[in-house]
Amino acid sequence: MVTAMREAESAVLEPHSASKPYHHGDLSRALIQAGRRILEAEGPAGLSLRAVAREAGVSPAAPYHHFKDKGELLDAIASEGWREMGAAIAQARATGPSASSSTLNIGVAYVCFARDNPALYRLMYKMARDKQTMEGHAKDAESGWSHVREALKEAGADVSDERELTLATIGAWCAAHGVAEMAGFKEFERLKAELGGEEAFVRAVLSHIVVFPRQTMRYPCPDEAVR
Amino acid sequence: MVTAMREAESAVLEPHSASKPYHHGDLSRALIQAGRRILEAEGPAGLSLRAVAREAGVSPAAPYHHFKDKGELLDAIASEGWREMGAAIAQARATGPSASSSTLNIGVAYVCFARDNPALYRLMYKMARDKQTMEGHAKDAESGWSHVREALKEAGADVSDERELTLATIGAWCAAHGVAEMAGFKEFERLKAELGGEEAFVRAVLSHIVVFPRQTMRYPCPDEAVR
DNA sequence: TCCCCCATCTAAGCGCTGTCAACATTCTTT
DNA sequence: AAAGAATGTTGACAGCGCTTAGATGGGGGA
Prior knowledge:
Number of strands of chain A: 0
Structural class of chain A: mainly alpha
Largest sheet of chain A: none
Mean pLDDT of chain A: 82
Oligomer: homodimer
Shape of chain A: globular
Largest interface: A-B, 78 and 78 residues
Strand content of chain A: under 5%
Helix content of chain A: 55-70%
């Protein structure tokens, strides 16, 4: 009664959604937050299940009542990341000065998210690639994905049908991902300085990703035997 | 001299000898090969230093006489990977049917290398990104990098100076990396089938990475305050 | 030719990890 | 109030990276 009230308060709001923890308050949420704190502070190397439990103030075995194994906790953390990245993309599209530039703005926002949350960003793709799918994450990031698609359409991308729009969307996402993973390399520091900062560098690189000769090699490709 | 030759042979093809070597012939090479074997067979999760030592038939502490720590062994494995990828790129450029298509051919070869050596490819970038540099690897991959640059120049990429060529080279590399990391997702399987196979899919995506409106947003970018 | 040095390898062990089974505690339900 | 499910703790196990101390044997100096 009294105890119940204390715990209800200490629980992180959320009135009464079906079957929530009782003892700690909301351990599963606390574990995710603890995990993100460790990820930021010490990088992925420090993100052990025991360290997360320690940070949350519980015993090493406690998390197993909320997550099947370590991977499931990491999945939950990654999911949060996908959701936040989707929001960042949505915002970039909304605040862009014009439709024709929103594609680039989205790309920059994407890379900035990765720069500001490097360990989280890497974890997101690690979990996705381990399972060879973005499903689940894709649902979380669907807003992001569809924003890219819509932005491409509005920008009048040179696509003639839905399939080409899909290919362009995939291409844009891949390009942004590539830049996000490369932008941190020291080799580019001089160039960044010359261009006036990291963000200008990212804009410049993204703007120059126009390299593959589409007109000479359409996709029902004649010489399939190159490799 | 004779002994040296025997050891050199036994290092490559182990399976014989009534008496096993007193001091392993060329352990550091054997460890790298064992590591690659494990990486292929069990993925990065199975790649423990102890497992590598086991595979090579030595005690768990033996590797420490050849590599300062586990990271140094992984670096050596990754280096081999960069070298092989550079060779694959060089070959793709050499065997391309025409100069104008060699850019795309290089991209396809890049992605195919990643597809055929997924764990190795991931390890390569993990090691590079942990150190925030491709140096060392960059030297190994320099042939690859410069091939891309030259191919872009020959293809008559729309660049007006050396800096733009550099930006285009970075962009192309980033795009290929992005596609390499994404191409394995199950979400694209239907599209792959429709396009006639994985390689056609890769060609199509690479060909459609022409998304960022370069003409409307050059790099001394006016509205820097988007993010 | 011999022998000894020292690079190479082994054995043992430390503190860490993920995971589990057994036990203890608390909340919900009846 | 008793039962039972949910939640947390303790202790243990095997495997990990890494270190130290000691054994081994091959190539260079005598």
